[in-house]
Amino acid sequence: MSPPSTAMPTSPHLIADSQSDPATSAVIDAVIDAALHQLNHRSREKLGDRYRRLRRQSLVIAEPLSPEDCCVQAMPDASPVKWHLAHTTWFFETFLLERFESGFKPFHPQFRMLFNSYYEGVGERFPRPQRGMLTRPALAEVLAYREQVDQRMLLLIDALDANGASTSAVAAGGGDAQPQLAQFLSLLELGMQHEQQHQELMLTDIKMLLSLNPLQPAYQPLPESVPLDDPAELALQWHRIEAGVVEIGHAGPGFCFDNETPRHRQFVEAYQCASRLVNNAEYLDFIQAGGYQDPSLWLAEGWDWKEQLALRHPLYWRRDAQGQWSEFTEYGVQALQPHRAAVHLSYYEADAYARWAGARLLTEAEWEHAAAHLQGGGREFFGVAWQWTSSSYAPYPGFVAAAGAVGEYNGKFMVNQYVLRGSSSATPLNHARLSYRNFFPATARWQVSGIRLARQG
Amino acid sequence: MSPPSTAMPTSPHLIADSQSDPATSAVIDAVIDAALHQLNHRSREKLGDRYRRLRRQSLVIAEPLSPEDCCVQAMPDASPVKWHLAHTTWFFETFLLERFESGFKPFHPQFRMLFNSYYEGVGERFPRPQRGMLTRPALAEVLAYREQVDQRMLLLIDALDANGASTSAVAAGGGDAQPQLAQFLSLLELGMQHEQQHQELMLTDIKMLLSLNPLQPAYQPLPESVPLDDPAELALQWHRIEAGVVEIGHAGPGFCFDNETPRHRQFVEAYQCASRLVNNAEYLDFIQAGGYQDPSLWLAEGWDWKEQLALRHPLYWRRDAQGQWSEFTEYGVQALQPHRAAVHLSYYEADAYARWAGARLLTEAEWEHAAAHLQGGGREFFGVAWQWTSSSYAPYPGFVAAAGAVGEYNGKFMVNQYVLRGSSSATPLNHARLSYRNFFPATARWQVSGIRLARQG
Amino acid sequence: MSPPSTAMPTSPHLIADSQSDPATSAVIDAVIDAALHQLNHRSREKLGDRYRRLRRQSLVIAEPLSPEDCCVQAMPDASPVKWHLAHTTWFFETFLLERFESGFKPFHPQFRMLFNSYYEGVGERFPRPQRGMLTRPALAEVLAYREQVDQRMLLLIDALDANGASTSAVAAGGGDAQPQLAQFLSLLELGMQHEQQHQELMLTDIKMLLSLNPLQPAYQPLPESVPLDDPAELALQWHRIEAGVVEIGHAGPGFCFDNETPRHRQFVEAYQCASRLVNNAEYLDFIQAGGYQDPSLWLAEGWDWKEQLALRHPLYWRRDAQGQWSEFTEYGVQALQPHRAAVHLSYYEADAYARWAGARLLTEAEWEHAAAHLQGGGREFFGVAWQWTSSSYAPYPGFVAAAGAVGEYNGKFMVNQYVLRGSSSATPLNHARLSYRNFFPATARWQVSGIRLARQG
Amino acid sequence: MSPPSTAMPTSPHLIADSQSDPATSAVIDAVIDAALHQLNHRSREKLGDRYRRLRRQSLVIAEPLSPEDCCVQAMPDASPVKWHLAHTTWFFETFLLERFESGFKPFHPQFRMLFNSYYEGVGERFPRPQRGMLTRPALAEVLAYREQVDQRMLLLIDALDANGASTSAVAAGGGDAQPQLAQFLSLLELGMQHEQQHQELMLTDIKMLLSLNPLQPAYQPLPESVPLDDPAELALQWHRIEAGVVEIGHAGPGFCFDNETPRHRQFVEAYQCASRLVNNAEYLDFIQAGGYQDPSLWLAEGWDWKEQLALRHPLYWRRDAQGQWSEFTEYGVQALQPHRAAVHLSYYEADAYARWAGARLLTEAEWEHAAAHLQGGGREFFGVAWQWTSSSYAPYPGFVAAAGAVGEYNGKFMVNQYVLRGSSSATPLNHARLSYRNFFPATARWQVSGIRLARQG
Question: D394–C392: do the CB atoms touch at under 8 Å?
Answer without folding.
Answer: yes
